Amino acid sequence: MINSLFSHKRYSFIGFDIYKIIPDDILFSITENIIPMNLKKGQVLFYEGTIPNGVYILKKGKIKKYATGLRGKEHIFYLLKENGILGHHNLLSKEVYSHSAACLTDCLFHLIPKEIFLSMIENNQEIFFSLLKNMSHDFGVFISDSKIMAQYNVRERTALSIMKLDEFFDENDGFKLSRKDHSNLVGTSVESLIRVLHDLKNEEVIDIKKSKIIIRNIKKLIRVANFE
Amino acid sequence: MINSLFSHKRYSFIGFDIYKIIPDDILFSITENIIPMNLKKGQVLFYEGTIPNGVYILKKGKIKKYATGLRGKEHIFYLLKENGILGHHNLLSKEVYSHSAACLTDCLFHLIPKEIFLSMIENNQEIFFSLLKNMSHDFGVFISDSKIMAQYNVRERTALSIMKLDEFFDENDGFKLSRKDHSNLVGTSVESLIRVLHDLKNEEVIDIKKSKIIIRNIKKLIRVANFE
DNA sequence: CGCAGCCTTGAGCAGTATCAAAGTCGGTGG
DNA sequence: CCACCGACTTTGATACTGCTCAAGGCTGCG
Predict the structure, then answer these.
(1) What does the mean pLDDT of chain A come to?
(2) In the beta sheet, which residues pair with residue A46?
(3) How far is the CA of A221 from the C1' of C25 (A)?
(4) How many angstroms separate the CA atoms of B25 and B19, rounded?
(5) What is the value of pTM for the model shown?
(6) Which runs of E-coded beta strand occur in B34-167?
(7) What is the predicted pLDDT for the residue at B12?
(8) Taking the C1' atom of D26, which residue's CA lies nearest?
(9) pLDDT along chain B (228 residues), means of 10
(10) CB within 8 Å of A132: residues ≥ 6 apart
């Protein structure tokens, strides 16, 4: 039921599967150039302002992408899970990273070095078009996101975030994300987030068990989100 | 002085010059396929949800791109001026328009039909890479925008918008934009915008002449914006 | 010169941030 | 195994920000 709401990626977190973009034979041909990397929960993969040296494929775990704003407050604008690609934007635009990426869980990455990635897309128009198509699509997602930030209130944004996070974590018994990260995703203070969660619990829209959030009444939740 | 602040596109409105991306010879070869279109101030070029049939190049005038949100309120996320391209995102992602575009002034467009545009980029890797590079760059701009919406207050966002608009309109004696459009760009109500403008006038940061805004003290304005 | 549309001002209220303090949980070392 | 520490979560009180509604003013144009 939730998935039907999110069948069109626009309402979901962006990110796509590079292994569907890169044909198997090409992927196989670069196997020996791929560098595996392990990072623990909480560690930072790359920092805003540093120089990209390749593209990462997240093989295991979950990460957040965020930009640092006023008084160091994190603005989380992107969550990525298994098989997502990251780091390609700033590599392609030849700029330093415009944001940071950190692990929400223990993670395994495959690093495709800069030169390998560039020659790969240069020599394969199919990959090129996939990239272009996916990036074009992502624009719609970003527009939607900035609209939500500009026009929806904390209660509505929180309800939306719960739907998104539940889909993102994709477990059967709800999801767990620190209140700090959650509030930085919603774009509010920790305290305001908690108050809304408390209200939603009282209204029997969600359950909270040891700070884990479980959707209890998705129809009500959609109504609270007030989206579209 | 302002331009130095905006020398890096990230802090400015996005959009780039298609005529720099498409080499002259290629552009010349499709001249006969380009369809010129005139629209009056206030007219809509395309509506959210409709099917793209080509790419537009804005030859003359200024346009706003916006998505419609709660209670029909416009969220303006993009302004485009002469020589900007629009409509390529949804054409490339093969989706309906994720937003609308309307004229802020009388405009002249060049419409490049869908097939012509697609074959053009298919047969020219240089254009392809330019597109990819520019779209990658635009991500940084969008991230910055959504961060501003999420973390900055109305006063700060208004100050930022004045800097951006002054650069965008690029006239020597300030700029004029309806309070409604301006507030939809800042992400606030018309009344709140007006109150901030009033304050900034009293603080001698800006001048307002018949609702036209002129920057009077750029250093103070930057300080008010509180950006970076 | 009068109308329509835009702009401005005021008052009151709802929403949200901030600060302070107390409660809870998980992990660690004795 | 238990006590304690530190980090995270929750609650409460208060102040401020920004929205809405209402009314009045201005301006440009027919």
Answers:
(1) 87
(2) A101
(3) 28
(4) 11
(5) 0.88
(6) 35-39, 44-46, 54-60, 63-68, 74-80, 84-86, 100-103, 107-113
(7) 47
(8) B210
(9) 36 55 77 90 93 92 91 90 88 91 93 91 84 85 91 95 93 92 96 96 94 94 87
(10) B92, B128, B131, B132, B135
* Residue A49: CB atoms within 10 Å: 12
Q: Write the residue in A95, A132, A150 that is nearest to B92 by C-beta.
A: A132
Say how far apart CA B192 and CA B197 lie, in whole Å.
9
Instruction: State both tokens at B150.
Output: 């999420």
Structure tokens at B45: 């070029």
Which residues of chain A fall below pLDDT 50? 1-11
Pairing status of strand A63-68 against strand A74-80: antiparallel
Cα separation of A156 and A159, whole Å? 5
Domains by residue range for chain A, with CATH: 13-142 (2.60.120.10), 152-225 (1.10.10.10)
Rounded Cα distance between A193 and A155, Å, is 8
Q: What is the 3-state secondary structure (H, E, C) of A86-108?
A: ECHHHHHCCCCCCCEEEECCCEE
pLDDT of residue A6: 37
Q: Which nucleotides of C are covered by protein (CB under 7 A)?
A: 6-11, 15-20, 25-26
Distance CA A59, CA A176 (A): 20
What percent of chain B stands above pLDDT 70?
90
Nucleotides of D under 7 A from a protein CB: 8-13, 17-22, 27-28
Is A189 in CB contact (< 8 Å) with chain B?
A: no
User: pLDDT tens across A6-19, in order?
Assistant: 333 344 555 666 66
